[in-house]
Amino acid sequence: MTSPAPDGAAGPAAHWGVTLYVVCGPGGAGKGTIVAELVARDPSLLLSRSWTTRPRRVGEPAEAYTFVTPDEFDARIASGGFLEWADFFEYRYGTPMPPPDLDRDLVLEIDVQGAVSVRDRDPAALVIMVLPPSRDEQERRMRRRGDPDAEVARRLAKADEELPVGYRMADLIVVNRDISSTVSEIAAFVGRTRSRR
């Protein structure tokens, strides 16, 4: 289930005057590493830190997400504090509503269903879909970060469902064979789209 934030708030293009760059893709694509490097290279980009009710993985940085309790997440929903949120298996993930005084373009790192919700809210949002180089490599990356077997299987099945949607929606599709090259390709896309504004 994916839900936009309540209250019918204006979409980002109309309200914030900045561009949303939505980096989406299946688990194991390398989205987190990519967006961290992208934002480090370009100080005019700001990364939106997603909220989640899942616990931190072993070795996962504390700043990877805003880790909250289910009650804290529910309170944020009730206050209209999410641009989008979703139930993903037994946990919830949400993108905080951007502040109204943003002076930098915003990068969202979310799954494909979240990207659909953001695009519904803001048709001008630019969607970048990141793919792993192969299914074997995707599975290897998930296991390397500590996902248990059942979680890997569920995420692979979810990817099979979401990829056709992502292909239709994406403004840019990148296969993440090498982090540096992938980040450079996305940075070039950001530069091109800014030059057209």
Condensed summary:
42% of the residues lie in helices and 22% in strands. The protein has 197 residues and is α/β, with parallel strands linked by helices.
Structural notes for this entry:
The protein is α/β, with parallel strands linked by helices and 197 residues long. The chain has a domain at 11-48 and 104-195: P-loop containing nucleotide triphosphate hydrolases (Rossmann fold), CATH 3.40.50.300. The protein has helices at 12-15, 31-41, 70-78, 112-121, 135-144, 149-169, 179-195; strands spanning 2-4, 20-24, 45-48, 51-52, 66-67, 82-88, 91-96, 105-109, 126-131, 172-175. Strands 1-6-7-4-5 form a five-stranded mixed β-sheet. The protein has a five-stranded parallel β-sheet with strand order 3-8-2-9-10, with helices on both faces. Strand 6 (82-88) and strand 7 (91-96) form a beta hairpin. Helix 2 (31-41) crosses helix 7 and helix 4 runs parallel beside helix 6. It starts with a strand and ends with a helix.
